[in-house]
Amino acid sequence: MARTAASAGPAWTPATLAVADEAPLRPNIMAPLLLLLPLFGQSFHYVKDLLPLWAMSKAFPVMSLPLMLVLLRRPLLPMTRQVLITFAWCVLVPSITAISYFDQDFFTGIAAQVKMLPLLYYYSFLGLLFVLRPTLKELAMGFLVWGLATYVSLILMWALVPKTWYIDGYAFGSSPLFSADSRGERIRMPMYFGMITLFYSYRRYLCGHGARWLGGALLGVLLTLFVVKTRAMMVGIAGVVALNSFRAANPRLRVLLLLLIPLAVAGLFSFTYLDSMFSTSASSGFDVRWVTAEKAVEFLGLTPDRWIFGVGTISPTSQDSLFAFFGHFFFLADITWLGIVFEYGVVGALLILLYEVRGLLFYRRLKRQIDDCFLGGLNDYIIYVLLISNLYPPTLSPGETAIILAIFVYVWFRLRTEAPPTANEAPA
What we know:
Layout lengths: L26 H14 L10 H13 L16 H22 L4 H6 L9 H12 L3 H25 L17 E4 L2 E4 L4 H15 L4 H18 L2 H18 L2 H18 L17 H15 L3 H6 L12 H5 L9 H32 L5 H15 L10 H21 L10
């Protein structure tokens, strides 16, 4: 393959791909990347308080589809068919099953699956990457800039927003940016870029790049713990940090960590509001989730077809609702994987699980070519998604993983096509 023009940057090798590369950032690449990353990362997808950005985020999976056309000039890339099959199942099958079980028409049923549209970001973001051709350093900087912006915004809002802006007694299903509940005043900040920045910083520390990176990771943990106050996030952070600490330790230290990590995790979750994760009181919402699970299992019953293919759901655009149908506050997200099986069936749940796992397996393949802290941080985020999936279902933000998979494939493709041949491959 012919080399790219000089304006597109040097050919990719493990050396030139390093995030610490001294090559300057290109403004014509960074500007569109920084502009579009929050939309691809679903940063505003559930922030209704910012109505214009929320509406743009909802429409963006369709608006960005033309970028997929770029892939037509490429050979069939890894994961292309898997993502398409997962998307097709999650949109078509529940739309069909809901016709029988909830008296929905097909197109109303499809409207209930708009949350799965960001799966298509795998194609559109990959197309964007092939158009922009950013270096790995530029990609990393794009994520880190938005991660830093996330934490700076959190600090400013925590310091400046008046208490009257915090909403208490909000309705089920709503997610105000500023809320007050049993955990106190909290800011429901989208933390996709913040989490990846945290994991990246901790990896940099483990790789010996200085204590300042540990300080950056610790700041992210403290802001999540005391300002965002989301239990699922703390579960994921604790799991990823423990796993990476264990991997980085020497054999003797690993033995010590086997004793210390469980104690540290137990101490963390006995702290402040986190102990409510194990509470069965009404204030924790356990009773609502329990009744929802009971009603879901009862509705699935002993019919194999319902368990295998799912039963779909009632679209928010319908005059009916799951609340009215079951006579109870019925949120499938509350029962996580059971809710996924309810809506998409066991087959759909396996497809969604394999969609995440494929990213982990592909990263292992990529790591044999280049071991980079940014790519490792992206892999950590997929682990994080799986760790919290019993508290926060991955179907709520599938675009987050989609753009990670796109980055993995983009890096793999450029390494494969632009790296110089080895001695054994060089022409005679």
